[in-house]
Design brief:
Order of helices and strands: EEEEEEEEEEEEEEEEEEEEEEEEEEEE
Distance between the termini: 5 Å
Shape: globular
Radius of gyration: 18 Å
Largest sheet: 4 strands, antiparallel
Keywords: Repeat, WD repeat
Number of domains: 2
Structural class: mainly beta
Helix content: under 10%
CATH topology of the largest domain: Methylamine Dehydrogenase, Chain H
Family: Belongs to the WD repeat WDR55 family.
Pfam family, one: WDR55
Strand order of the largest sheet: 1-28-27-26
Number of helices: 0
Length: 290
Amino acid sequence: MEINLGRLAFDIDFHPSRDLVTTGLINGDLHLYRYSTDAQPQRLLEVHAHTESCRAVRFINDGHAIATCSPDLSILATDVETGSAIARLEDAHSSGAINRLINLSETTIASGDDDGCIKVWDTRQHSCCNSFAAHQDYVSDMSFASDSMKLLGTSGDGTLSVCNLRRNKVQAQSEFAEDELLSVVIMKNGRKVVCGSQTGTLLLYSWGCFKDCSDRFVDLSPNSVDALLKLDEDRIITGSENGLISLVGILPNRIIQPIAEHSEYPVERLAFSHDRKLLGSIAHDQMLKV
């Protein structure tokens, strides 16, 4: 199914238990849709969440609210049922435009900004738990290892960071890669970290040895790999600048098959539905595809 959003979307997220999907748009709007495999999607909410673009969206608090962030430096929590604002954190980051949100637990999320700062928030108390000066350029993606309480970040500065939430410090940082790192997932039962890059190469790091990558997959794409989504411990789904969405095997590294496309428009984000039966994607064609 396809939804014409009418404007460029920056992020997508599925409800943790219901057939709902949300997206954030360039004009600051938040959209919420109900989807079904045998009916047209129904828009339930259209909320003007921010004065500037809505860069990231995440369902929080067991799906009762949606968190959004923006270059206006605010993080907003919106009620899923009513569309009303539950809480707004003004000046949540000091200067850099807030561009990323990820869920860490049922009550915590992480945010990243254009200045390289990463923060962790308690969604019930609306308070900051951790703050890391992790990078020298924008935070492009994050991934969380819950067993070790470590938050990984990639950046336009070409590095991978490892933030230790227990010690509240940046524990490790990779050497500068040859180009910008745009996406990150943890694979192989926590033994490998895969990063997508501006040149289309996948960089593989061994856990605990983050200084330099242990392997490179150079045959994936000549275009940047903007989005990575973990399917299982051995396979990932990649979204590239050329609009192609592919299933890729890791160690052994191989392209298994292309699975979707956005007509040569750059893919922004990928996400699974709550039952992992549906794959959602957004791209510069202003379409949300499921």
